Amino acid sequence: MLELILGGARSGKSSFAEHKAKESGLNVTYIATATVYDEEMQKRVDHHREQRPDYWSVIEEPYDLAGVLQKEAREDKCILVDCLTLWVTNLLCIEDKALWPQKRQELLEILPTLPGCILMVSNEVGMGIVPMGELSRQFVDESGRLHQSIARTADEVTFVAAGLPLTMKG
To answer: From the CB of residue 154, how many other CB atoms can be counted at a distance below 10 Å?
Structure first.
């Protein structure tokens, strides 16, 4: 079962995903994609750590999401990925620009083959104005394309706003 959970910043999407993971009754592995570059981001990471149960396994992986998913996914496990847009950012901001399309393709190929419950959290960034900067536009475009591709494959897609889930697919 693959579910894509979208929402804006502080929409409640991570809390919603964490609740679903807890309710799954399965062993949970949390894959964190964040990289910490400043104090504000550290506070965000700390907040997420405080929200997670101590008994969940946590893997921090900023780049090789497909590899970790392939290794960790099992029928008796729920994997929560938080979040895809940070993963996209990590790959768009590294020196090797060829890595993003490669890692994106690896993820899209592996997702339909994974056993168990896979919950993927991501920021919906395509609901505002078109950004002025080239990197910002690329980020919005690539995130939107990734979301569309995953949504086509996903069993369920949920949009969260103000802590309230709206089922878009499923």
So the answer is: 22
Active site residue 147: no
Taking alpha carbons only, the member of 122, 131, 127, 128 closest to residue 154 is 122
93 alpha-carbon distance from chain centroid: 17
* Tokens 């959290």 belong to residue: 121
119: Cβ–Cβ under 8 A, 6 or more apart, which residues?
3, 5, 17, 20, 21, 78, 79, 80, 81
> How far is the C-alpha of 65 from the C-alpha of 141, rounded, in Å?
20
Is the model's pTM score more than 0.85?
A: yes
| Active-site position among 19, 47, 48, 147 | 48
Q: What is the edge-to-edge ordering of all strands in the sheet holding 156-161?
A: 57-60, 27-32, 77-82, 117-123, 2-7, 156-161, 164-169
What is the pLDDT, as a whole number, of residue 82?
96
Structural domains in the chain, CATH included, are 2-6+15-160 (3.40.50.300)
Assigned token pair, 91: 């790959």
Residues 83-97 have pLDDT tens digits of 999 999 999 999 998
